[in-house]
Task: inverse folding
C-alpha cells in the first residue's frame, strides 16, 4: 500500500475573493476561489486555517504574486466554513469590527481581491450521541461544521451567546430547531447559569464550547467542577479575548504554554486549546 504523503505544516495558496454575503449585522461570509485553490488541502471537522491579510500600508495589484502578498502580511486563524473541492471554493466567515486587521479587511473585501490562505486541518468527528455546543458569533462556523458532521442518530443542542439581542442573525438550516440565542451583555456568569440549567434538564454526553475567553472561564469551572465533565467528555477553547488584541492574546497563550512545557508538562492539542482561557486577564 502506498503511503499518503504528509503535507508541511503550512502550505500557502493564493486565493481570490469570488463573492461576499452578509449573514448578519457584523457577520460576513467571504468565498475564495481561483486557480491557486485547485489543490487546496482541507481535512477534519471545524478545520483551522491561517489567513494572511495583505499589508494595509501597501497597494496591491490584481495580479500580485503569492510571495508579494505574503510580504508584510498579518496572520490570523479562522475556521473553514465550507470547502467545495470540485469548484475550488472556500468559505470563511468573518466578524466585522474596526479594531482588528481581519475585520477591516473583510469590511472592504470585493471580488477580485487576493490574499494568501494556508492548508486547513480539523478534529476527528464526535462520536457522542447527545452533544451540547456553545459559542458566540466567532464560533458559529465551527459549531455548524460539527453539527453537520454528527452521526444521523445523534442529537445536538446549540447555545449562541451575543452581547445584545440585536446581534442575532439567521443560522443555516442544520441549526433549525436546535439553536438558542442568549444575550449576556458584560455578564460573564449568565451563560454559565444557562448552561447549568441546560445540563440539569438533559445531561449531554459531550459539551463543546468556544468563543471569548473570559466568558468561557467560569463555564469551564462549572463543567470540570460541579457538572463533573472530564477532558474526554468536554472541550473548551478561547478564540479571542475582550479588551485585548489578537497578537497580545496569542503571545500570552504561547508564553503560558512554553512555561508549562519548561516545567515538565506534556501538553496535548486539547491542553493547548484550553490554555487559551487561562492567560493573564490584566492588560
Result:
Amino acid at each position: 500500500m502506498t503511503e499518503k504523503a504528509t503535507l508541511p505544516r503550512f502550505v500557502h495558496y493564493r486565493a481570490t475573493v469570488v463573492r461576499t454575503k452578509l449573514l448578519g449585522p457584523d457577520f460576513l461570509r467571504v468565498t475564495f476561489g481561483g486557480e491557486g485553490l485547485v489543490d487546496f488541502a482541507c481535512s477534519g471537522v471545524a478545520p483551522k486555517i491561517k489567513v494572511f491579510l495583505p499589508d494595509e500600508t501597501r497597494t496591491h495589484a490584481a495580479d500580485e504574486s503569492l510571495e508579494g502578498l505574503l510580504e508584510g502580511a498579518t496572520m490570523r486563524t479562522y475556521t473553514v466554513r465550507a470547502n467545495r473541492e470540485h469548484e475550488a471554493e472556500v468559505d470563511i466567515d468573518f466578524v466585522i469590527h474596526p479594531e482588528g486587521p481581519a475585520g477591516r479587511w473583510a469590511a472592504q473585501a470585493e471580488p477580485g481581491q487576493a490574499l494568501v490562505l494556508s492548508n486547513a486541518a480539523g478534529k476527528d468527528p464526535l462520536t457522542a450521541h447527545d452533544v451540547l455546543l456553545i459559542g458566540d458569533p466567532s464560533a458559529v462556523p465551527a459549531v455548524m461544521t460539527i453539527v453537520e458532521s454528527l452521526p444521523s442518530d445523534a442529537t445536538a443542542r446549540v447555545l449562541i451567546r451575543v452581547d445584545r439581542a440585536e446581534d442575532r442573525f439567521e443560522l443555516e438550516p442544520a441549526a433549525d430547531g436546535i439553536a438558542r440565542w442568549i444575550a449576556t451583555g458584560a455578564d460573564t456568569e449568565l451563560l454559565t447559569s444557562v448552561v447549568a440549567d441546560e445540563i440539569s434538564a438533559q445531561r449531554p454526553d459531550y459539551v463543546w464550547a468556544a468563543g471569548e475567553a473570559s466568558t468561557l472561564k467560569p463555564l469551564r469551572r462549572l463543567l470540570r467542577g460541579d457538572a463533573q465533565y472530564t477532558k474526554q467528555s468536554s472541550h473548551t477553547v478561547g478564540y479571542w479575548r475582550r479588551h485585548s488584541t489578537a497578537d497580545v492574546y496569542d503571545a500570552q497563550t504561547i508564553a503560558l504554554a512554553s512555561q508549562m512545557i519548561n516545567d515538565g508538562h506534556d501538553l496535548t492539542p486539547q491542553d493547548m486549546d484550553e490554555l487559551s482561557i487561562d492567560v493573564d486577564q490584566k492588560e
About this structure: The first strand starts at residue 12 and ends at 24.
